[in-house]
């Protein structure tokens, strides 16, 4: 398996891309990572899926957004429009070679960003979305994330359960949560994102996999019912929520299902 690291120019600084496979492959997949520590916890499973896709003939690129991973910038400088620019810059880089298809593959917040990218920037460079357990509501994600701050403060004996850290951040205070400096700009922008019925749903086909779930949640089922035509395929897949659980190195049922779905969508017949 061929692996190369690349730095490309982004709008705010250099972006790091981890590229797997033959760069001239007919089908390309761009991975958009989840938020904060979920990005680190999911790396092993994501890399495993990337290798599996590479063996099936795909070119796979893993993006580190500005301010995250090995890309330039600090986390508290990051903003959602900048991350959308990072996605666009990477798609331009991928598009330097002729492709039959380009898939945006997003995990958790990455899935919501993929949908928002198509809604905001169009689908000219994207043929489909592959969503792993996508976040449906950014406000809910941020609310859950700031609970980590509350729990940490309480466990250290200095917590005040009357302090609403999420609100304080939205009001302009930079609040450190689990080692991440949360700026009001980024938090408010993520909070405003949601997976709502919109014209973007008509622009691309979508493979939606509810990872670590025995069945499709009601919120996802409701969205499915509002989806136009047959543009959405949604399935549940049992397993460990590896983006939350340390030392999780594989998610076989998920990676096998993902490869199957992409092969069917692209008509790829590699062994």
Can you give keywords for this protein?
alpha/beta, Hydrolase-2_PEP, 271 residues, Hydrolase_4, hydrolase activity, Rossmann fold, AB_hydrolase_fold, 9 helices
Task: Lay out the secondary structure.
Elements: E1 3-9, E2 14-20, E3 27-32, H1 37-41, H2 43-55, E4 58-63, H3 80-94, E5 101-107, H4 109-121, E6 128-132, H5 138-155, H6 165-170, E7 175-177, E8 180-182, H7 184-191, E9 205-211, H8 218-226, E10 232-237, H9 252-266
Parallel strand pairs: 3-4, 3-5, 5-6, 6-9, 9-10
Antiparallel strand pairs: 1-2, 2-4, 7-8
* Computed CA radius of gyration, to the nearest angstrom: 18 Å
Domain unit count: 2
The strands making up the biggest β-sheet line up spatially as: 1-2-4-3-5-6-9-10
Quote the distance from N terminus to C terminus: 15 Å
Write down the secondary-structure element order.
EEEHHEHEHEHHEEHEHEH
Q: What's the number of extended β-strand segments?
A: 10
InterPro entries: AB_hydrolase_fold, Hydrolase-2_PEP, Hydrolase_4
Protein name: Hydrolase 2, exosortase A system-associated
Organism: Marinobacterium aestuarii
Domain Serine aminopeptidase S33: 46-148
Q: Short description, anyone?
A:
It is built from nine helices and ten strands.
């Amino acid at each position: 398996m061929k692996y190369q690291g690349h730095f490309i120019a982004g709008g705010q600084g250099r972006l790091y891309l981890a590229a797997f496979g033959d760069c001239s492959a007919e089908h390309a997949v761009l991975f958009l990572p989840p938020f904060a520590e979920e990005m680190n916890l999911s790396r092993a499973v994501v890399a495993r899926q990337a290798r599996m896709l590479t063996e099936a003939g795909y070119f796979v690129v893993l993006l580190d957004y500005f301010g995250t991973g090995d890309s330039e910038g600090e986390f508290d400088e990051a903003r959602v429009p900048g991350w959308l620019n990072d996605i666009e810059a990477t798609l331009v880089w991928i598009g330097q070679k002729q492709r039959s298809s380009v898939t945006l593959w997003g995990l958790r917040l990455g899935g919501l960003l993929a949908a928002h990218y198509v809604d905001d920037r169009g689908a000219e460079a994207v043929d489909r979305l592959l969503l792993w357990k996508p976040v449906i509501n950014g406000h809910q994600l941020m609310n859950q994330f700031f609970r980590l701050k509350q729990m940490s403060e309480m466990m250290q004996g200095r917590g005040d359960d009357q302090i609403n850290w999420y609100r304080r951040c939205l009001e302009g205070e930079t609040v450190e949560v689990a080692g991440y400096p949360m700026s009001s700009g980024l938090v408010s922008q993520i909070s405003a994102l949601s997976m709502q019925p919109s014209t973007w749903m008509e622009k691309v086909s979508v493979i939606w996999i509810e990872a670590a779930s025995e069945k499709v949640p009601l919120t996802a089922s409701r969205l499915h019912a509002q989806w136009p035509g047959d543009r959405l395929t949604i399935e549940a897949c049992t397993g460990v929520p590896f983006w939350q659980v340390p030392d999780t190195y594989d998610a076989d049922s998920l990676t096998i299902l993902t490869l199957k779905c992409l092969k069917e969508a692209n008509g790829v017949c590699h062994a």
